[in-house]
Amino acid sequence: MTPAELSRTVLRSVRGAVEEQELSVPVPARIVVQPPPRPGCGDYASNVALQLARQAGRPAREVAEILRKRLIGSAGITRVEIAGPGFLNFTLGDGAQAALVREVLAQGDRYGDRSVRSARGVGAGDVAGPGSSPDREPAPDREPGRGPDRGPAPGPAPSARDVVVAEALARIQAAAGVVAVDGGQVAPVAPPPDLTALIARLGVDEARWVLLRPAAQDPVRVPERPVQRESNPRFRVQYAAARARALGRYAQELGFGSEPGDVGAPARGEAVGEGPSDGSVSAAQSLQTFHTLLATYPSAIETAARLRAPDRVVRHLEATADAFFRWHDVCPPLPVGEQKPLAVHRARLALAEAGGTVLANGLRLLGISAPEHL
């Protein structure tokens, strides 16, 4: 079960409770599920009960219990618990991680692409040119052909990916002195000398990363020169994407391929235990963090689109690359030493490939290269 599927399952439980008059509330348009704030609290959590409690005129924990009873036994959900004032914590079934990997690999470069319309006015026209204001009110729907004051009906909502691309382009263009002209098109003008020098010194990838990494209100911090090592977040993300691809090439040389499955089972010859004694991240923790970041990549893109904040994509990619390396180090996807490839190696390789897909998608979204080799 993916986060989107879990969200729809919780929404169905709310709708069922309303239809059977267990709750008297308007059914929300969507339910937000997110990783829990602390490890050990399940795979995902939702505050839907707290949101509905006031409208229902009932305590949040009572609303949560109504939903919990409806959700118990749902396909893909192993456990539903109530925490704190009324949070719902979900533990998914053993097949959830493999299902996510299959989804990422099946969608490929389309993974993370969603349609979005927000109250801030993100619409089809906003993608065509970056000169429009994200804070204007969306235009009311119009009926075509009903008089001279009637314009065409709004077109389909743009994908969240397109909105993020447009906003990233707008920030780069603003720095480069690009101006909007009639018809929503953009016309490049000569870049100011400081940006020309920045690109000449850092290269296009690093320059874009430097300009897109800060939030809109934060200053841009320009390094003296690009550092091609893991201390550089941009290089670390690119290296993680390239490493994931390299694992596939090495696996082919060893005569095996990827197959989504259980990645948690230790391969023969690997140590089995509760976790490292030195306080470092355990295999289970690193796997959970990595899996969660892959699962929440589409919602990160959607949030970045709604808030016109490509820096959120940058931060998600950095976290994903860090999680990839932590998991990779404690759960090697390739056989070690004299080991022979096992099912667990095929499953880990599939997860690594899914991680590489997400990282490459995010880099290309920002206009930054995702090289096959580094």
Would you kindly provide a written description of the structure presented here, covering whatever features stand out?
With 374 residues, the protein is mainly alpha-helical. Helices cover 48% and strands 5% of the residues. It contains 13 helices and five strands. A hairpin with a 5-residue loop joins strand 4 (179-180) and strand 5. Helix 2 packs across helix 3 (60-71) and helix 12 packs antiparallel against helix 13. It is globular, with a radius of gyration of 23 Å. The protein starts with a helix and ends in a 9-residue tail after the last helix. Residues 115-152, 178-190 and 272-280 have low confidence and may be disordered.
**How would you describe the shape?**
globular
Question: What Rg is obtained from the alpha carbons, in whole angstroms?
Answer: 23 Å
Structural class: mainly alpha
Distance between the termini: 34 Å
Q: Per DSSP, what share of the residues sits in E-state strands of 2 or more residues?
A: 5-15%
Care to count the β-strands? 5
Low-confidence stretches: 115-152, 178-190, 272-280
What share of the residues lie within helices?
40-55%
Query: How many helical elements?
Result: 13
Main β-sheet, spatial strand arrangement: 1-3-2
Sketch the topology as an H/E string, one letter per element: HEHHEEHHHEEHHHHHHH
Average pLDDT works out at: 77
Major sheet, described briefly? 3 strands, antiparallel
